[in-house]
Design a protein that fits this description.
The complex is a heterodimer.
Chain A (H helix, E strand, L loop, with lengths): L10 H17 L2 H21 L10 H31 L2 H6 L5 H31 L8 H24 L5 H18 L11 H7 L3 H13 L15 H22 L9
Helix pairs in contact in A: 1-5, 2-3, 2-5, 3-5, 3-6, 3-7, 3-9, 6-9, 6-10, 9-10
Chain B lengths: L23 E10 L2 E11 L4 E5 L6 H9 L6 E6 L9 H4 L2 E4 L11 H9 L8 H8 L14 H13 L5 E5 L7 H16 L3 E6 L2 H7 L2 E6 L2 E6 L12 E7 L2 E7 L2 H11 L8 E3 L3 H12 L1
Parallel strand pairs in B: 3-7, 3-8, 5-6, 6-7
Antiparallel strand pairs in B: 1-2, 1-4, 8-9, 10-11, 10-12
The chains are: A mainly alpha, B alpha/beta.
Chain lengths: 270, 299
């Protein structure tokens, strides 16, 4: 290079800039907000109103559903959101354009992670508010909050990484949406989001156990349900150790998949 | 032939060393996709401060060549230096000196035009003022409009804005005016000329011959991955010395003649006719004639 170079902008500044971009891109897009944020809220409102029956021992289904719908909300904010938005940005050239700038490539992912965090926190806060105000949900107490935090963190991290990896399989945003949305819905049905997990046929339970959502829902049930309900779980306990293990393994697998498959450009057509 | 002294340095010969002073120096560049040879043994130097237009039909290798220079694609053979560095190894500092306008439009953003340009400026060490950039590309009135609400031509201008906001030393423009109406193209041309005044080197690919002629200091014609010719636009294909075509009507018959001395020929004709020579026309090959002949020979 010839001229004396002005130093590159600080990494912190670029991270902040990308985070702001990602937040605006999400919260200004009506479809994303409705689909990712409002759908779990609507489901809670409808299920809470229609299926507010007693599971026995004074525990309402809404209390049970609270854990599941939060897990589903986390899945939507991370896996579905990442898979669709990154596939879109890859096929429309946004990623390629960014790759041609001096932006440190990590900044793109930092922006996405900030977006996932913001959306996740927003979903959880709204769901808890509605649950408490309209359906008399019992909030977690004491160390349950800690469990809430780490299950959310590990679940969100593994699903974000998985979403980024899945984005590379799709041709564009629309095809990503067409693949990931039914997949997520199916997972929700067999992972104990809409029905009690113990009511689901055991082979479906086994399939669900391969994926993160089942473990996220189980971890959140341990937060929202009284401890005697652990007896209804497949293992007869909340299995915190196994939940952490499976989610950490998914984080590692997701990260490896991302590193192996991530592309900044569409597959060359020539 | 006297004008050829005004021509810029001739193109490099195979085997010449890379030119370290050039903005872009390419030797023996080759790239295949499977069996398809996209770029075949290409040699080219683009000098600092120059506007160079790469002309050629679709699939001729324009975009492949440009994207190798931008660092997007790996080359198979040959050597390339862009601003003194190998683009295959260009780091963030190197990229800070480049501006890239890709062939495809940028996506449907929820950000406003101004936010988009400002957030891109954040990535560069010494960016231009986003408002000045919007003024330059003629998007000031659209500053508060979201990207997704722009028309195709406006979006293309936004792409150009994103390409220049980092104050590039070298600007790549891959078919920048495709989809522009004539007025938008004229505006774009004056933008390119004002960037030249600021000393920006530009490599432009285009389908439009008039665009190359209006903007470029030199034109390279690429066909089937080979650089057929490099010249200043007025000299391309020996255009200035090519025989003129003279047509007229004599005894009710349309006649044509090719001549290197059209003035003398017309004087002779004038002597044969009492008044006006019927249907007289004198034509030089247009850039388009020359271009079509060249890409035809390349096939």
């Amino acid at each position: 290079m010839t001229a004396p170079d002005v130093p590159l902008p600080s990494v912190a500044r670029v991270f902040r800039s990308r985070a702001v971009v990602e937040l605006k891109e999400f919260f200004r897009q009506r479809e994303a907000v409705v689909f990712t944020l409002m759908l779990p809220v609507l489901l809670l409102v409808v299920f809470g109103a229609v299926l507010n029956f007693d599971l026995g021992n004074g525990v309402s289904f809404t209390q049970y559903f609270m854990a599941g719908i939060i897990a589903a909300g986390i899945l939507g904010a991370s896996l579905q959101n990442m898979a669709i938005s990154i596939a879109t940005e890859r096929s429309d050239g946004t990623l390629k354009s960014l790759a041609g700038t001096p932006m440190p490539r990590s900044a793109y992912f930092v922006g996405k992670v900030v977006q996932v965090l913001a959306v996740t926190v927003a979903i959880i806060v709204i769901l808890l508010l509605i649950g408490v105000v309209f359906y008399g949900i019992d909030l977690p107490a004491g160390s349950d909050w800690l469990t809430f935090a780490w299950v959310t963190f590990l679940g969100s991290a593994s699903c974000t990484l998985l979403g980024i990896a899945i984005s590379s399989l799709a041709k564009n945003g629309r095809s990503a949406s067409a693949t990931v949305t039914p997949f997520a819905l199916l997972l929700q049905f067999i992972s104990g989001v809409f029905f009690q997990f113990s009511e689901i046929p055991s082979w479906m339970q086994t399939v669900a156990a391969f994926f993160p959502l089942k473990w996220m829902a189980q971890g959140l049930r341990s937060v929202f349900l009284p401890d005697f309900m652990a007896a209804a779980e497949p293992a007869g306990s909340w299995e915190h150790g196994r939940i952490a293990l499976v989610l950490v393994l998914w984080c590692i697998a997701g990260l490896l998949l991302c590193v192996a498959t991530f592309r900044w450009q569409d597959r060359s057509t020539k | 032939m006297t004008r050829s002294s005004a021509a810029v340095r001739p193109r490099p010969h195979p085997g010449d060393p890379l030119d370290p002073a050039a903005a872009i120096s390419i030797r023996g560049l080759g790239k295949r996709y499977g069996e398809f040879v996209a770029v075949d043994d290409l040699d080219l130097d683009i000098h600092r401060g120059e506007i160079f237009a790469l002309l050629g039909p679709n699939g001729a290798g324009k975009t492949t060549t440009v994207e190798i220079c931008e660092g997007y694609r790996a080359r198979d053979t040959g050597d390339v230096r862009v601003l003194g560095e190998d683009p295959a190894q260009g780091g963030r500092r190197w990229k800070a000196h480049l501006g890239i306008v890709l062939q495809s439009n940028s996506g449907e953003s929820q950000l406003t035009v101004r936010e988009t340009v400002a957030s891109r400026a954040d990535l560069y060490p010494d960016p231009r003022n986003p408002d000045e950039v919007l003024e330059l590309v003629g998007l000031t009135e659209k500053a508060r409009v979201r990207g997704q609400a722009l028309s195709g031509g406006q979006r293309r201008r936004l792409d150009v804005a994103l390409g220049i906001v980092g104050r590039p030393t070298l600007l790549f423009l891959d078919e920048p005016t495709t989809g522009f109406d004539p007025e938008a193209r004229r505006q774009f041309w004056s933008l390119i000329r004002s960037l030249r005044e600021l000393g920006t080197t530009m490599l432009l690919t285009t389908h439009y011959l008039d665009e190359a002629e209006a903007l470029a200091d030199r034109v390279g014609v690429i066909s089937r991955g080979r650089l057929v010719e490099v010249a200043v636009p007025s000299l391309l294909g020996g255009r200035e010395t090519a025989p003129a075509l003279i047509t007229w009507t004599e005894d009710g018959v349309r006649r044509t003649a090719e001549t290197a001395t059209p003035t003398a020929f017309v004087r002779e004709l004038a002597a044969r006719f009492p008044g006006e020579v019927p249907d007289l026309a004198v034509a030089r090959p247009t850039l388009e004639d020359v271009y079509l002949r060249m890409i035809g020979e390349g096939r």
